[in-house]
Design a protein that fits this description.
mainly beta, 1 helix
Length: 132
């Protein structure tokens, strides 16, 4: 396992930045170990799998988890607002960093993750292959 760490600054897109890092570093399989920081714009897909809600308010990143591949990343986040109320969902583009976001990733050198379309779900789903 190899660890990667980087920092995002104000105005950077959280999801796009993580995906770009994965491609730039040729990470074939990985997970998010930690993500902390804050956002001033949030875009999350809800549990119905269709609705995307965009909120233009300040949120702290309480947690993030996800699988990472060059074919795409599947990331969920929990966020806390100024009243300490928590929301969460599937991370979409246009979640914009306020001040900072500190990201730590783990890369699994013995696996390759791919995303392939699954007719049953209608989404590109994770396919896991062990490296030989």
């Amino acid at each position: 396992m190899k660890i990667h760490a980087f920092r995002l600054t104000k105005g950077m897109d959280l999801k796009r930045s993580i995906e770009k890092y994965v491609v730039d570093k040729n990470i074939k399989s990985g997970v998010i170990l930690s993500a902390v920081g804050c956002l001033y714009q949030v875009a999350l897909r809800t549990a119905d799998g269709k609705t995307v809600k965009t909120i233009n308010e300040d949120y702290e990143i309480v947690s993030a988890t996800g699988t990472l591949s060059k074919d795409g990343c599947h990331i969920h986040v929990s966020l806390s607002d100024v009243n300490l109320q928590t929301i969460g969902g599937h991370l979409k583009d246009n979640c914009l960093v306020n001040v900072t976001a500190e990201i730590v990733l783990a890369e699994f050198e013995g696996y390759e993750f791919y995303r392939e379309f699954d007719e049953n779900t209608g989404y590109k789903e994770l396919v896991i292959r062990e490296k030989k």
